[in-house]
Design brief:
- Helices cover 30% and strands 28% of the residues.
- The chain has 267 residues and is an alpha/beta fold.
- It has a domain of 72 residues.
- The strands form 3 sheets. A 6-stranded mixed β-sheet has the order 6-7-8-3-9-10, with helices on both faces.
- Helix 3 runs parallel beside helix 5 and helix 5 runs parallel beside helix 6.
- The longest helix is centred in the last third of the chain and has 17 residues.
- The radius of gyration is 19 Å and the shape is globular.
- Bound molecules: adenosine-5'-triphosphate (ATP).
- Keywords: ATP-binding, Nucleotide-binding, Transport.
- One of its GO terms (molecular function) is ATP binding.
Length: 267
């Protein structure tokens, strides 16, 4: 396979406002990307373009070697796993589904289970539960799980279809430190078979599996490249309009704010 992902000259406008401006970005083999940027910088809009839910006003999008406009997006989407905390809006309709039913439903891209499941599919769901240390939850109704458990189940679910690209959109939002670390520990498993796009506001979630960073600011790519070259004091301070310092510990970045006066100026 050639390109995992390629955006050339991509612009996206809505109601006369340019939301994404001149995006040029390529994802190659062996690369796992973290996507960072302040609220409103364009992260969700970018994911909507990449998954074909929005069409760029201008420019070219290629995903998994397939050019948008010339490919069947429904087929392509089967190769993209997507987990976002917003998926939890389905919670209220999932009163009775068990954990394993939720996981196996990932095969059919449905949230409930409406199709006949083969023995091989149940076995695969079991293997995923095992890989993500969720077997202890088998038989339990999904709606009774903790937020952290739900996220892990949704990630396992999205791997039922063996996606080539896995998008995690702020998967740790609202989780405590233990649940967050549990989610991060799954990345090692995910990158074995999928290319990861990991969206977050929190630098410390950029774990060692992530090799590259795309940093957005005001609807533009502010910086992109190798993680160690992008995550430094100067680039992040400029991107956030806030004086920050990056500390590396155990090959993982952490951020402190240097000048609280900057925060006062912003509020
Ligand atoms: N469908 C739309 N119509 C009009 N404006 C939109 C639309 N979608 C997004 N926007 C605007 O585009 C900008 C970027 O929004 P987007 O949701 O992509 O940012 P984000 O980086 O994901 O933000 P957050 O971190 O808060 O989720 C915002 O100003 C938003 O109001």
């Amino acid at each position: 396979m050639g390109k995992i992902l390629s955006l050339k000259g991509v612009n996206w406008q809505r109601n006369g406002q340019t939301i994404l401006r001149d995006f040029n970005w390529e994802v190659h083999h062996q690369e796992q990307w973290g996507i960072l940027g302040l609220n409103g910088s364009g992260k969700t809009s970018l994911l909507n373009i990449v998954t074909g839910y929005q069409f760029p006003t201008k420019g070219e999008v290629i995903v998994l070697d397939r050019s948008f406009g010339k490919t069947n997006l429904l087929e392509l989407r089967k190769e993209i796993g997507f987990v976002s905390s917003s998926l939890e809006r389905f919670d209220s309709s999932l009163k009775f589904e068990t954990v394993e039913e939720i996981v196996v439903s990932g095969k059919f891209a449905s949230i409930g289970l409406y199709e006949v499941v083969t023995k091989a599919e149940w076995e695969k769901a079991d293997r995923l539960l095992d890989r993500f240390r969720l077997t202890y939850l088998k038989g339990k109704p999904y709606h009774l799980l903790s937020q952290g458990e739900k996220r892990r189940v949704l990630i396992a679910r999205s791997l039922m279809g063996d996606p080539k690209i896995m998008i995690l959109d702020e998967p740790c939002t609202g989780l405590d430190i233990v649940s967050r670390e549990e989610i991060l520990s799954l990345l090692k498993e995910i990158v074995k078979n999928s290319y990861l796009l990991y969206v977050t506001h929190h630098i410390e979630e950029i774990s060692k599996e992530i090799t590259h960073i795309l940093l957005l600011k005001d609807g533009e790519i502010f910086a992109s490249g190798l993680k160690k070259e992008i995550l430094n004091d100067e680039i992040l301070s400029q991107a956030f309009n806030l004086s920050v310092k990056v500390h590396w510990e155990e090959d993982r970045p952490w951020l402190t704010v240097r000048n609280r006066e900057d925060i006062k100026m912003r509020s």
